[in-house]
Design a protein that fits this description.
The protein is an alpha+beta fold. It is built from six helices and three strands, in the order αααβααββα. The protein has one domain: Arc Repressor Mutant, subunit A (Orthogonal Bundle), CATH 1.10.10.10. Helix 3 crosses helix 6. The longest helix has 29 residues.
Length: 124
């Protein structure tokens, strides 16, 4: 293989298509419905749980809580207690989370651009 053909994934030793590669679990977390929407919601500003729940229509408390735990465990966001009484927690993206959120936002922008064609095809 020509070194100029090397991809960053090959250089770093990851292969998302390999069943046991750790990048597969990360990909599954960030591309899940609630993972992607949570990262996108936090792209511009940190939020508290209630703000996130209102921003992400249709997510249950249980699913949002699970998603936040997965993203935190993966190092994509931080959880900071900002007030003890009543308990208030703020979620913010890490540098890695910001990078992933930027890619998700680019995908969302692309969806918005192609949506008229998708809607037209579905109605045909």
């Amino acid at each position: 293989m020509d070194p100029s053909d090397a991809t960053p994934s090959a250089e770093l030793g990851f292969d998302v298509f390999a069943a046991r590669c750790t990048s597969r679990a990360t990909m599954e977390t960030i591309t899940s419905r609630w993972g992607a929407l949570t990262l996108a919601a936090l792209a511009d500003t940190p939020m508290r749980f209630g703000e996130l729940r209102r921003r992400i229509g249709g997510v249950s408390e249980k699913m949002l809580s699970q998603t936040l735990k997965q993203l935190e465990a993966g190092g994509l966001l931080t959880r900071t207690v900002v007030s003890e009484t009543p308990l208030a927690v703020e979620y913010a993206l890490t540098d890695a989370g910001q990078q992933v959120a930027a890619a998700i936002m680019a995908l969302i922008d692309t969806v918005y651009r192609v949506q008229p064609a998708v809607d037209e095809a579905r109605s045909a």
